[in-house]
Design goal:
The structure holds 2 protein chains of 2 kinds.
Chain A lengths: L5 H6 L7 E2 L2 E2 L1 E2 L10 H14 L9 H21 L7 E4 L2 H16 L5 E5 L8 H10 L2 E5 L9 H6 L5 E7 L11 H10 L4 E4 L11 H4 L3 E5 L10 E5 L1 H6 L10 E4 L4 E3 L13 H17 L1 H19 L5 E4 L8 E6 L4 H9 L3 E2 L1 E3 L4 H7 L4 E5 L6 H18 L1
Parallel strand pairs in A: 3-15, 5-6, 5-7, 7-8, 8-9
Antiparallel strand pairs in A: 1-2, 4-10, 9-10, 11-12, 13-14, 14-17, 16-17
Chain B lengths: L10 H8 L12 E7 L4 E10 L2 E10 L2 H14 L4 H16 L6 H4 L15 H16 L2 E6 L2
Parallel strand pairs in B: 1-4
Antiparallel strand pairs in B: 1-2, 2-3
Classes of the chains: A alpha/beta, B alpha+beta.
Chain lengths: 407, 150
Amino acid sequence: MSALDVLSIRKDFPILTQKIREKPLIYLDNAASSQKPDSVIDAISNNYRFDYANIHRGVHTLSQRSTDSFEGAREKVRVFLNAESVKEIIFIRGATEGINLIAQTYGRSNIGQDDEIIITAMEHHANIVPWQILCEQTGARLRVVPMTERGELILDDYRSLFNSKTRLVSIAHMSNALGTVNPVAEMIKTAHSHNVPVVLDGAQSAPHMTTDVRALDCDFYVFSGHKLYGPAGIGVLYGKQALLEAMPPYQGGGDMIRKVSFQKTEYNDLPYKFEAGTPAIADVIGLGAAIDYITGIGLDNIAAYEDDLLRYATEQVNQITGLRIIGEAAHKGAILSFVLDGVHPHDIGTLLDTVGIAIRAGHHCAMPVMDFYQVPATARASFAMYNTEQEIDVLVSALKELIKVFR
Amino acid sequence: MFEDLRDLYQEVIFDHNRNPRNFRIIENASREVEGFNPLCGDRLTLYLNIVSGVIEDASFQGSGCAISTASVSLMTEIIKGKTEGEAETLFSQFHKMTTTEGEVDWAAIGKLAVLAGVKDYPARVKCATLAWHTLDTALKNEGQLSISTE
């Protein structure tokens, strides 16, 4: 195993010490949302306890303290993504809101009748529906990059989708339903060779691998705090400055303006132009603490450890007769989606819960992926840096027992 | 290992899941309703033959979890030979048993009582009630229809 002190990491997560139905909690639903370390919980509660006030225009001490922490978190995000400027870091509610923002601002200004938007066969509903709404509004069309049975995008087909009508590409860096890590650097190069900008959905990848938006050269990037050991309800939209400057605002209100009269409003500079209203101040500060926490451990260390966990889990579950893994891409994040002969995923989920194991059962907000594999749902175990091989052993023996009960 | 599961998964449920009763199509059924639970992908089609207000035959097709499969299988057994009114009464009894604290007529419920455990598993209540909501729609509407739990 890699150089990661898992036992000490586990001590940082208070929720992990509890018992569920008298069994130690084994939390394997990290792709849906991950748990929070003390440092994140403390950052939020300390803000409310000692420093809380509204930010940006206050002249008093508390407002200044909150503003400093809030803008400090923005700088942490900038470093985390290796963006050029904090002007490119917009706080939003989560990856979903980020994609909707891009669709309704960049999309409404640049995409019209008969234009085409490329997405992939493995997208989360959050990277399908906002584009369908835009298509309904503008008469544009969605084109979908197909995938193989293993859950890998067919890049030849991707390349052949480009034509003079292609206006935007929006792809998941990592699939939440399959675990596939897509070759986004290469896909971005292809799109740029056709002068088409690319949106990267980093909701699933951001907690598990290093992200460098300048090296990837993506035009937009979104992620959610809650999957990154941070608070729910906060996320980040990164956009290249020139693109963001040319875009109209998403919502109007306080903070996003410079001057307002009944005749005309002058919008604020980036990033505030896209941050109307009082934001989730404490949660932004909590997100900053989450970034400190994972960068302290090191994303490369986390990725290597989770890779070992995935390899171990894959070997173990492959020995279970009647179990089929859904998503077997060569490059995968620590997500194990599977179906069991004769046992519906929801029954697997309920039965595992009775022995303290939390997994996800369902369509994982990716119904087209379920249709592709012709399954109504899958069971999904998704791992994080605080999971252990011992926990995987408990999962595997529970699955073996469960099959006996059902047959 | 799974000592706690018997509250929810009684042997009768496993039995009906392994060998669902009335798992077939009724050609020219007088009622045919598809029930769908988009949350878990459970999908079933219920067929009824109603003659002079009596359910002469009931069957289903589809796929779902053990709870939903056992529920629809048991339901098709118990409603056969009942009048539409009697089936509606059973629906409301079943609904009470799985969702509220209301007084349940256990004599009328009969062997459907094996599904009473879902009450303690809120995430699974819809698995058990999908069949009955589909029946309710079938009783209130003639011909072919489709419903969804969400």
